[in-house]
Amino acid sequence: MLARVFSATMLGLEPNKIEVEVDGNSGIPILIFIGLANKTIDEARERITSALLHCGIKIQSKRTVVNLAPADLKKSGSSLELSIAVGLLKMYGEIKQNTDDSMFFGELSLDGRIRAIHGSLPLVLAAKQMGFTKVFVPQDNQQELQIISGIHIYPVDHLLNLLKHYRQEKLLKPIKNQKFTTAYSNQDQSHGLQEISGQFQAKRALEICAAGGHNLLLVGPPGAGKSMLAKALITIMPPLTEREAIEITKIYSVIGLNQNRLIRERPIRSPHHTTSQVGLIGGGSLIKPGEISLAHHGVLFLDELPEFSRSSLEALREPLENGQIEISRASGSAKLPAKFLLIAAANPCPCGYLFSKQKECHCSLPSRENYLKKISGPILDRIDLHLYVQAVSISELKNHQSNDQTEENLRRNRVNLATQVQKVRYKQETDIFCNSQLQPQEIKKYCQMDKTAKNMLYYASQKLHLSARTHFKIIKIAQTIADLDESPKINTKHLAEALQFRQSPLTNTN
Description:
single chain; Rossmann fold; five-stranded parallel beta sheet; 21 helices; 37% helix
């Protein structure tokens, strides 16, 4: 008897529908998998056989073939094991109901228990999109799926309980949908802006970044507080929306970093400078997300920027411009989301004390040039705000007093108001949610400048020899500053502040 069951597998972040066909014929008793199954799936025959025996199911002496269609798509992971077991149960006649309206996901233990899987959120969302009305998932995955509505999600802890459900002996209960709630990121941690002494211009730059989604480069001597500033940015960013939370959780779920729960806070990723290019942007033989995708809708902090390999930094061009990365491998191609806010930190020279007021730099000009050679002009051009950060004096540190998050709350409130203004302004656009995402045609449509500001920008572009990309970035930064100022138009004050953040300390090291 030929049995058919539906499931799905992941390629990158894209779910692919899998039709599991199980058929038994006369011949040598053996369980055969066909359809480009990898080693993990090939080893599942022992787990599936043992699980069926522990459920009291006698294995029939047949030559059993399991076909995973489509045959030209490589399958990986353990999420197909439950669907294969259900297919065998249907072939044996233990399950007589029609399961064409259902998808099955789960890894089997030897004793029949169903273990949690990676990627349950995108898989269930895909099942809903494909028109399935029921989905059976491991019980340990139910917490991250409670936000999904419009499909019946049945958590299962043991294969025998699934069998009892279809025998009408003990019906499984679907998950109850819960309303999405969120919170500000890391509010209870001690690295907020109120803990940082001085650095008022840097804090202002962080406020602009959080309000408009702009990237920031911090240059300064060791111990100036660049890392603290980068980590504090997350505390003033607006809370996640439901759509953003689902997108982030899908990424973390695929590689098993979400602890089987829905992520409700913006991520901050800080990869070491020895991280490989694949580790940074994603890829590999099975195409997995990299650090830039793990920072989606959050912050990617690259400390010691010149120490990263030049190839890794150059690979950031596409995601910085488009908010995604397209990766092609022999196993297929995938588009991975990467709408992150980049905060980069660098020393101005090998010793770190060029332009410092505390210590003198002793680096030679060739050593400075070699140190900065890894950072190309196109990468610097894609970073919106540039700022030199001086070290805080001992007297400032001594006199610093925490203001009980008053400063942080004020900045967070201004950021929230500015982001709400942008949501209203771009409500007719499908892919634009903040000023940094504007393209030249949208800039002309939405960014209103008074006449004096237009003249000021024209003369600044001529005198500073600004590229077209830099010209438009200045307008976007000025628009964010105007939103923070609750101004309907960009004026000369907003433009002047935007211009001062475009003078890179790394372009003048002589």
